[in-house]
Amino acid sequence: MSGKLLNAEEVAKHNSEQSCHVIVHGKVYDVTEFLPDHPGGKGIILKYAGKDATEAYDPIHPPGTLEENLAPEKYLGEVDQSTLKKEEKEVTEEDKQIAKNKENLPMLSQCLNLYDFEVVARQVLKGTAWAYYSSGADDEVTMRENNTAFGRIWFRPRILRDVSNIDFSTSLLGQKSKMPIYITATALGKLGHPDGEKNLTIAAGKEGLIQMIPTLASCSFDEICDARVHEQQVQFFQLYVNSNRAVTEKIIRRAEERGVKGLFVTVDAPQLGRREKDMRIKFEDTGSRVQNDSKDDVDRSQGAARAISSFIDPSLSWDDLHWLRSVTRMPIVLKGVQTWEDAVRAAEMGLSGVVLSNHGGRQLDFSRSGIEILGEVVRELKARKLFSPMFQLFVDGGVRRASDALKAVAMGATAVGIGRPFLYAYSAYGPEGVQHAIQLLKAEMEMNMRLIGAPTLKDLVPEMVDTRALNQHVVFPETSANTVYERMSTAVGSPDEPVGKPVVKL
Amino acid sequence: MSGKLLNAEEVAKHNSEQSCHVIVHGKVYDVTEFLPDHPGGKGIILKYAGKDATEAYDPIHPPGTLEENLAPEKYLGEVDQSTLKKEEKEVTEEDKQIAKNKENLPMLSQCLNLYDFEVVARQVLKGTAWAYYSSGADDEVTMRENNTAFGRIWFRPRILRDVSNIDFSTSLLGQKSKMPIYITATALGKLGHPDGEKNLTIAAGKEGLIQMIPTLASCSFDEICDARVHEQQVQFFQLYVNSNRAVTEKIIRRAEERGVKGLFVTVDAPQLGRREKDMRIKFEDTGSRVQNDSKDDVDRSQGAARAISSFIDPSLSWDDLHWLRSVTRMPIVLKGVQTWEDAVRAAEMGLSGVVLSNHGGRQLDFSRSGIEILGEVVRELKARKLFSPMFQLFVDGGVRRASDALKAVAMGATAVGIGRPFLYAYSAYGPEGVQHAIQLLKAEMEMNMRLIGAPTLKDLVPEMVDTRALNQHVVFPETSANTVYERMSTAVGSPDEPVGKPVVKL
Amino acid sequence: MSGKLLNAEEVAKHNSEQSCHVIVHGKVYDVTEFLPDHPGGKGIILKYAGKDATEAYDPIHPPGTLEENLAPEKYLGEVDQSTLKKEEKEVTEEDKQIAKNKENLPMLSQCLNLYDFEVVARQVLKGTAWAYYSSGADDEVTMRENNTAFGRIWFRPRILRDVSNIDFSTSLLGQKSKMPIYITATALGKLGHPDGEKNLTIAAGKEGLIQMIPTLASCSFDEICDARVHEQQVQFFQLYVNSNRAVTEKIIRRAEERGVKGLFVTVDAPQLGRREKDMRIKFEDTGSRVQNDSKDDVDRSQGAARAISSFIDPSLSWDDLHWLRSVTRMPIVLKGVQTWEDAVRAAEMGLSGVVLSNHGGRQLDFSRSGIEILGEVVRELKARKLFSPMFQLFVDGGVRRASDALKAVAMGATAVGIGRPFLYAYSAYGPEGVQHAIQLLKAEMEMNMRLIGAPTLKDLVPEMVDTRALNQHVVFPETSANTVYERMSTAVGSPDEPVGKPVVKL
Amino acid sequence: MSGKLLNAEEVAKHNSEQSCHVIVHGKVYDVTEFLPDHPGGKGIILKYAGKDATEAYDPIHPPGTLEENLAPEKYLGEVDQSTLKKEEKEVTEEDKQIAKNKENLPMLSQCLNLYDFEVVARQVLKGTAWAYYSSGADDEVTMRENNTAFGRIWFRPRILRDVSNIDFSTSLLGQKSKMPIYITATALGKLGHPDGEKNLTIAAGKEGLIQMIPTLASCSFDEICDARVHEQQVQFFQLYVNSNRAVTEKIIRRAEERGVKGLFVTVDAPQLGRREKDMRIKFEDTGSRVQNDSKDDVDRSQGAARAISSFIDPSLSWDDLHWLRSVTRMPIVLKGVQTWEDAVRAAEMGLSGVVLSNHGGRQLDFSRSGIEILGEVVRELKARKLFSPMFQLFVDGGVRRASDALKAVAMGATAVGIGRPFLYAYSAYGPEGVQHAIQLLKAEMEMNMRLIGAPTLKDLVPEMVDTRALNQHVVFPETSANTVYERMSTAVGSPDEPVGKPVVKL
Asked: How high is the pLDDT of residue D307?
């Protein structure tokens, strides 16, 4: 780890697959051998071969990533700053528009619901960040269904009950929460804001919610813990189990040391999802439109698959849970359960709960929404006398209104997780945005519980929701197939320009 | 209550939260202490601090409001008119457009159905008034569902019956009505027309319908009673029960004195709803877009909640109904029942009826329509032998066609209430508009009963409607979520501009 | 009945409600006393008071109408042609556009299905004619449902059957028909073409279909009979029963004399429907936009109702059918049956059949489609052993494809009626248009029967259609309510201009 | 078969129905007598009467077609090339646009799913080719339903299973396939690319899929066999049974000689379908708009029906299958089965399987999708203990995602066929396009199986799919009827321009 000073012009010569050096935070690394293992593909690194990659590197890698993944000898030394040509940073049209949009940002108080943060974020996020955050698997049918499913549940409100005082506080895995809502884990938080996940930590602490820390955070785990606003602030941790169990053990130990109160093991992502909106924006980003690159494409995707298998173990199975319980005393919850059969099995094993979830619609398209699965899970747990406060049910995906949370609670859930909307909130407004979002949810929740006639969460009984339509999936016509089909024409020509279809025009 | 004459320049100095005077109808009041209790928030008063607030005050406060809510010493005297600077009233673009639209108002006879009044009113109402009248809770799903639900009921018309003479007169709580339709209570009637609720009184009297007088009227209760067109004209009264029962008793006594024939106790609004369309127009109104006002926003909403609790008692419960029966001989009807359980309880208590209603979709989103609830209420009342003319069922929400009323009657209702459409009718055309609307309903009703083969309302039996689809809620894609989602893109670009989504553009 | 010659200037003085003369085909009539009885309202006559009304009169009155409805002394004599000022007929923009569209009329062979005739007719019909033909009752929900309902029936085609020869000939009330399709009765045929209903007679004769002659034809009954292309051509007659039974008997006797083979008694129109599209175009037509005319409107509609009752008897009941059977030997069919209860009653009475129909969606909105009713009628007739070839079931409404007819036949109908599409066909192309439409249906029918594996209509068994979804009504969002509702807005403004909503704009 | 040299000017004189000569590849043929038998109608031939028809002839006729269909004496000799005037080929606007689009063709790697090939192909195909490939029967309801039906099936994924290794190889009729997907037969492959079906052969060979060779290929059968990329490459053959059984026997024998491994007998096309989109483009092509041609139209269609019966026998029945089995040892599969009754019969006869298919929605509109039929077929086969690997079930129609194939396999199918998407792939990119499409499907399949928790196809059990909604057909509003209906208007005019409706405008 020498303090060797390297000339930038020398570094610039290592700009190929054969020899690839990059500068990050003034330090020079030889990443030639690492290229095929890069989870994002080698192409994106080669773009910065021989150059300063700091700006591109920062938002998507937590501090220490390079050090942890490269052998010590790959660190070659510091770059001599005087030799580094200051590249005139190109200001793109998109940059200009975003700057302008930021100047015209609506007042925070104009955001009246969680959808608003989404439309505001759309204005201030780079296209790449927006695509990463907002995209879902394949035709995004499941992503939409997550939200739509709540719309198939209606209330049966009761009248003439004393609703002067409303109390929606609750307890998750024995930890207090001001609401039956928690902040669920989402990846790459710095794409939206330089402080990344810490925005969520601050808002959660101030508003009394529990944050689930993601494995794939942009901030380091310790940074996120350090951001707690008070000592009693509770955090959970979301875990991807590594093929190398020792790595996982080390991570769990660190979480316990930092006082994490619950372990959410992701079980719905043995392979990371493929989101086409996200992929399309990358093509736009590169700008070139050269034919005959199909082979490269194939190679790259194989490389990604290989690389991923190093930190998510696709062979993880029920047997591994015994080992997991042996290495921690934290309550263990399976995140990503999608059938009653697996929920029952988790309950029978004595786990602490399950998150009924499809990963925000980002993994398997046409998997069902968590809220729909909740219906069958509660039914089957009750039939086996396994429905109890000792085995908690969580739901995430599509929650946008406090009423969505209340529907889940009435059906038997302990709490629901919210992810994207809070990302959008801090992308536009920082931690205050997240706080405001939470306050909106609190105001909605107070109002709704009063109107439903349920002064506490215990009063929210199954009879208060009409779930008869819950299993009736409807695929709305925004999906790919409907983009492709043409309207019928008539004897006097096309009734209107074909919808969603590029036509032959000069 | 002196006749003291005050100099307007002196008044103008009391223009802050610390000391706030306002002029209304030439009288000067000190409202400093009242600021935090104002139901509409203190901000709106401060806008007029030290100034003449008459024009903004009038449409939303019945005469006498200030006097009833302020201690006598807060009235400081009359303003010296000679010192009052005539402010040049700004004529906005909106004002100009409305004036132009009024000149081009369609002839009344061009309004062929109740929807027409809505589109015409949209042209002549100020944006703020339109937003207040037309808005619903949250995503307005329930507001739309109210109307849509009627569309899931179809007729089974019978043929070859003598339908020469059609009679659709009926009796509500023992009072005659020319139709199974009444004018239900709605708030702030002067937003649409300077004569406010009196427009409804006049039309109701001339056309033989019963009007339900609202607690939150713009006109005073007595003004509305005074507007009756003949001595036999029947009115009902809609009641918000005040935390101070003495206030409520006084109101009830006055209603009895003025000959009101029925008391409709609102039970679905322990807290006044929050309508986002209405909130948004207010931001546009203020015009400023300053950051860091989020705290103010929070305070304001808390203030509103506190203030409201003074005139609507959120602790109102079934037990209070005994008291209510002890203070009046008027028949009592619960307005806002949303489950068969509560309807059965009301029947068992010996009340005179219930209005199955969700408050026009303005309170709890995803509550079901009154017409859907009617189905289960009739079934359960019959099962308990409680279905009888002594316990009448009313439905409001979404009624736009006489056929909607006929569907409700066939299912077991006595009558249906109509609110917004009559507001729209007089906003554009005054009392003649309301009369025309009622005449249209009468013409539709005569036609429909003839075509259904039911010469009187008694002939409208349950077998004449096909209600199998009634419970099948469909959320149409105008809701917030669908505004936010983007269409899928393709390899040759976006098929069309994203629908309902602001995009990054220069 | 003098040959008295009248000066046009003299006639022109009788131009008011007090004294109203009109000239039709050179003859002068005093219609002052007839004004209040005119089915179309007095307003439309007064427009031509003192003038030559021939051009407006002709398309909507069959020859002889005036003579039959006026006392002989109201005929005042012939107008002296030399005194008649030739009015320069104004050529409107619409006239010009229609002329241009006629020049660019698609070739008849470009019309590939029945929908094509509708879009072509839209181009060449006057707005008033289009509105009359294409409109339906109220929100046109039933009109759309008629067609949509067929879309809920799917085929279960069988394979490997010898389909070399396809035969779709059948027999209606004992009369041969080349297809299980007949031309049903529709009113005011000259609005689309000067030869009116005769176009249908010619095409029906040439193509071997049966035409049902309407009571409200533009051509006289005899003209339509005279237009038969060969001696064996079969016609049915649609009957409105007059309050004056002698008038009806006379009509029936004339029909028998002219060889009509079946009597279809309309039972779904005790009052003529009210169609708003049709009403709107009339306002555009008058051009004036004067306020305070609401009273006139009310009077007019009452007048219409009274007038109508003279030729359609709203007291017609089951008992009258005994009389009807006593005055004719023609088979009697009830047209407009909408429940199984009434169909069963008709079968029990020994009538020859029923047409399951809602009058093309022009009478009662939210009545169900004939094809849906067919399902329950067949079930209940079979349950009572009344399902037999001696009691034939017909369906009309929404038939646009031969496959629609095949679905009905598979379910148990003998034939289906088609109305509007043939009007559209001759409006654009005369009798050849109707022939082409029928030929298209024949080609579709041959193709479809071959593909279904049913070489004859007898082979079309109930198992060949999947009708499970038939009762699932869906109201598509073209209806009035959805025209009125606005999309939700967002923190960054309206996602797009409100759909279907005029907004305040300068 | 003389080498006689003919003068082009002489040939040009035979340009009428009375004497019609055409030049194809330099050879002159007398086709006068063949005109009425031409499957595409005589009109299209007469367009080239007396001229060189090579360019129009080539893409839609496999080599040898003329020789096989004409008597030897109809070959008149070679044209003298020196006498042939080189016609300046007109470069149309469409040609220019397609050339431009081809220059801007997206990179192959930008095609992320099978829908992409469709939108890209739309850019580079001639309108006529696009219309032929993309069209469906009548209102294209079934064509859309084919895809939509898959959207009514949702997954029930299982967690914590070892999904390190995914294997989706399988066996079709005893032949290995890398995926449970095969390339199904489609007609006229050269419309999209000069190498026609050979593109599919090459890609199938390289990617390990099985291709089904169509009877109506643009390439000759032998050309397609010759294009195999290795000796083990497997091909199936799709057969239309000729009225002349000897012709069919000869074809079968040739298929066996060339090593074809399975015979798919088309049973859903006793008559070739009629697709209106395809017919409309032909009218645009001719350019003339002359009236009075209706008779010609009728003749032509009759001619076509007659002509077709020569190579597809509409009398084919179950009995003929005994003969078929007697002339080949290839496994026989019925292609186009649409009910469980016929599938059971095929199983009882001992055939090797059925393809549940509606011919890509190109034959009978409102026939159900193969995937829906699969549900009932498996149920009924199981009830009769006929569900076994010896009787394989295939499904085609609407498959666009690997998940569609997995849904079919989970329900009991062996494999699914894909047609149009591969045509689109090679139309834009040649065989590499098809390969890329297959690679995308493989990547999707690996991902999906991992996420479903099914490492092999055997692990895909029925419990992994939720098919409760499968029978709920929804007709989306792109169909003809909805193109024709107008939105309701209002008192202030039309809310927006009528949708899907040409209006009278100047």
From this structure: 38
Residues in chain B with CB shorter than 8 Å from the CB of C485 are 140, 144, 478
pLDDT, tens digit (0-9, with 9 covering 90-100), for C39-69: 667 888 888 899 999 888 887 787 878 887 7
Mean pLDDT of chain B: 87
Q: Tell me: do D67 and D168 sit in the same domain.
A: no
Which of D139, D160, D432 is the closest to A316 by Cβ?
D160
Quick check: is D468 in a domain? Answer: no
D147 and D75 in a common domain: no
CATH number of A61's domain:
3.10.120.10
Check A366 against D118: CB less than 8 A apart: no
- Does one domain contain both B173 and B320? yes
A221's tokens: 């785990």
* pTM, two decimal places: 0.92
Query: Which residues of chain D does A474 touch, with a Cβ-Cβ cutoff of 8 Å?
Result: 474
Q: Could you give the CA distance from residue A247 to residue D172 in angstroms, rounded to a whole number?
A: 44
Which of B453-457, D211-215, D280-284 shows the lowest mean pLDDT across its residues? D280-284
Measure the CA angle with vertex A160, ends A154 and A165; round to 5°.
Answer: 90
Helix-, strand-, coil-residue percentages of chain B, each rounded to 5? 45, 15, 45
Q: What residue type is assigned to position D203 of the chain?
A: A
Q: Percentage of chain A surpassing pLDDT 90?
A: 65
Same domain, D333 and D436: yes
**DSSP line for B249-305:** HHHHHHHHHTT---EEEE-S-SS----HHHHHHHHHHH----SS-HHHHHHHHHHHH
What is the ipTM, given to two decimal places? 0.90
The answer to whether residue C154 neighbours chain D at the CB level (below 8 Å) is yes
- For A41, the domain range is 5-83
A487 lies within 8 A of chain B by CB = no
Mean pLDDT (whole number) for B144-153: 91
What are the backbone dihedrals phi and psi of residue D24, each rounded to the nearest 5 degrees, phi first? -130, 125
Whether A296 is catalytic? no
Q: Is C120 on the interface with A (CB under 8 A)?
A: yes
Whether the CB of B414 is below 8 Å from some CB of chain A: the reply is no
Contact D473 C147 (CB under 8 A): no
Distance from CA of C116 to the nearest CA of B (A): 28
Per-residue pLDDT band for A474 (boundaries 50, 70, 90) equals low
Alpha carbon distances (Å) from A109 to A431, A439, B297? 14, 11, 6
Q: Check residue D294 and give its pLDDT.
A: 35
When CB atoms are compared, the residue of D338, D479, D492 closest to C502 is D492
* Domain co-membership, B77 together with B36: yes
Interaxial angle between packed helices C370-383 and C141-150, expressed in degrees from 0 to 180 and rounded to the nearest 10? 60
The number of domains in chain A is 2
Q: Indicate which residue of A132, A182, A240, A424 is catalytic.
A: A240
Q: What is the mean pLDDT of chain C?
A: 87
> Per-residue pLDDT for D298 more than 50?
no
Q: Mutate which of C310, C484, C486, C499 to disrupt the B interface (most B C-beta within 10 Å)? A: C484
Contact present, C310 and C242 (Cβ < 8 Å):
yes
Torsion of CA B319, B323, B326, B330, to 10 degrees: -80
Task: Residue B283: name the closest of C486, A112, A110 by CA.
Answer: A110
Contacts with C, D 203-232, CB within 8 Å: none
Q: Which of A384-388, C153-157, D104-108 has the lowest mean pLDDT?
A: D104-108
The DSSP element (H or E) to which B354 belongs, if any, is: strand B353-356
Per cent of chain C over pLDDT 70 is: 86
- B197 and B238 belong to one structural domain: yes
Nearest CA in chain B to C265: B160
Per residue in D162-202, pLDDT tens? 999 999 999 999 999 999 999 999 988 999 999 999 999 99
Q: Which two tokens stand for residue A72?
A: 């010590």
A180 vs A209: CA distance, rounded Å: 9
